[in-house]
User: Fold this.
Amino acid sequence: IAGITQAPTSQILAAGRRMTLRCTQDMRHNAMYWYRQDLGLGLRLIHYSNTAGTTGKGEVPDGYSVSRANTDDFPLTLASAVPSQTSVYFCASSDSGEGDYGYTFGSGTRLTVV
Amino acid sequence: QKEVEQNSGPLSVPEGAIASLNCTYSDRGSQSFFWYRQYSGKSPELIMFIYSNGDKEDGRFTAQLNKASQYVSLLIRDSQPSDSATYLCVRTGSARQLTFGSGTQLTVLP
Assistant:
């Protein structure tokens, strides 16, 4: 593993089903984030975690939950998928150091809810 | 009003020209900004980071920040077809969270 790994790459999901998007990083970054990207709306923050054991809500958290049991993993769960959750989901991480703390992004999960 | 505004484009420039990408922001307390590049179907990748008023140069890229005017720009000199992508203007916020603009699509014509 190098950087951030997301799985699956893509998924078609029936409405009402539960699904977990996986995200693992090997850079020992403290902070991790989940974004969704929709055409014309850019990337919007769903949930974040500044350190293992803590999580917070972003701009669009409804219908999603996260956990951060350890530094490396930050799964995103859709409890009961709806078509409006069709999107591309990006996991990202950042170091907690000062100065330039740009994000490193995973390759994304393309989710279609039908 | 969106927190970070970008012209969605598309912006087309000929190969070798200077591409100018612009961004305005609403939160006067914003301290620093990133420019990310995103190729179609790929994840965003960091190009530049700027937090001081003025210009910051890195190779063919120059980021410009004017906090009084709440304006950020990215100049790409000697544009190449490989620069064709969507460019995202991003501001930093609390808890190290980033707020993304919706992006400007750039096409460099051979």
In short: The mean pLDDT of chain B is 91. The radius of gyration of chain B is 13 Å. Chain B has no helices and eleven strands.
